[in-house]
Amino acid sequence: MKKTFSLMLVMMIALTLVLSACGAKNNNEGGTNGGTNEGTKVESDGTGKDFKIGMVTDVGGVHDKSFNQSAWEALETVTAETGAATKFLESKGEADMEPNLNSFVKDGYNLTWGIGFLFNDALSKVAKENPDAKLAVIDSVIEAPNVASITFAEHEGSFLVGVVAGLMTKTNKIGFVGGMEIPVIKKFEAGFKAGVAAVKPDAKVEVDYTGDFGKPDLGKLAAATMYDGGVDIIFHAAGGTGNGVFNEAKARKDNGDAVWVIGVDKDQSLEFGDEITLTSMMKGVEAAVHKVSKDLIAGNFAGGTTQELGLKDDAVGLPDTSSKNVPADVLEKVAEYKAKIVSGEIKVPTE
Question: The pTM is what?
Fold first, then answer.
């Protein structure tokens, strides 16, 4: 279950995370939890009631039902638990990222998150220009003493869902729909293809990059083309664009077609239903954002550190709900391959 997965990752990060102790206005949409103290930066009193934590989304938006949404749900939990004020700003394009980050820094936010690889340049610049500001980033490594970097071994978890797809395809045609063709998404693709090849070397994996994380229509079109060509299982790593893959699968399932989608980042069966979601490649973004944010409030900040979280940490992998559609013998194979990856017997490619 989602709660079990998040709890395990919170415990893991508590043991493994190394701790250490201007801007332009914008008109992008945002949301707020709790009170605010605009322009005033305060120190921790251990409760979080006077703390402000900001989050800037990538182009997929906060309601992508995936990556950004996981991060925002973590901050909503932080508000509920500590009273800290939390707010998000959405980036409609890469040009919005630096102004959005600077908006939080200028307003004295105690921590500002950049969610995604696309923040590498903007967050690096803001961190350098504002050495007293504390920032954190997901899926990018920024060498700066005031930045906490969290990355994930997406290729390892993707290998496991590739094993599922390879063992469960009926047509020997499998699809991968990516958003932008950037290194982190290429890791998803590489791991997935390796997992399929490990159990079904004669299966063909078709790949389509839509070029965007926030356009469901492009995801729907990519899925339609693949399903028309005989693909019966599609794994997406496309953020909000991937919602269109689910929409196309649902329409086809309603018409009697035997097609599936493998979700990403969250347990997407909870959003789109078990009838079309075969499984998901979960990624512990929510637990990581929650842990780093609460550490800050407690007076500990992992600035200047980088942590990669993978299968050995239970930070990526399949949700418990997989058993609804994935047979027990297939899940046993998944467990076998997981053990081999964790032990180092199998090294999963990243490209």
Answer: 0.82
